[in-house]
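Hi all, long-time lurker, first post. I run a small reading group and we've been trying to get comfortable going from sequence to structure in the token notation. Rather than ask abstract questions, I figured I'd post a concrete chain and ask someone more experienced to write out its structure so we can walk through it together at our next meeting. Sequence below, copied exactly:
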Amino acid sequence: MLKNLLLSTAILTTLGFSAHAQEAEVNAHIYYLTTCGHCHDAREFIYNTLAKEFPSINFEQRNVAEDKFRKTFESDLKKCNLTSYGVPLVVIGDKCFQGYGPKTGDEYRNAIKSEIEKIKSVESTASADAKKKAETELPEEPIEQLNQPGELPRKSTPWMMYSLIVIVGAATCFIFNRTRVKMKKKKTSK
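-- Answer (accepted) --
Happy to help. Here is the structure in token form:
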């Protein structure tokens, strides 16, 4: 019983950490026109190559002929310091690429890798800052000195929690087993 409880806890913990360790989420916007040959080539490269290399990247297609994308297209042009309304315009993080040529695909790939590294760096910095903050908030006196006379040391709290988990698990097994025995008796009495 305890083995099953510990095993399920370990599995859930591992799943939680592996989900967090997945590739960072990056958004990419592809502005295009259906009549544009370079747009077709860029979109084909992105969806046939980059989408397979980076499955967690959100590639969003935005046809600038549609009214709903005109304002975002213009704001991205301003953000990128571009004056030409040429398409394709691919925005990956804070990097912008207008047009499409033989080397553009490698530029897209490098921009995606750069964004992933930037996001991971920010996450690791935030994690390090949180750890440093937690370390600085620890009391300087030993924990036992903070307890009142007659009080259990606070170090025993995790053991109390583990004991409580074991007791609840055992009670659950007992109730489940008891219910199962009652069901068997009902079936045999019929």
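A couple of things your group might point at:
The first strand starts at residue 27 and ends at 32.
Residues 14 and 65 are 47 Å apart (CA to CA).
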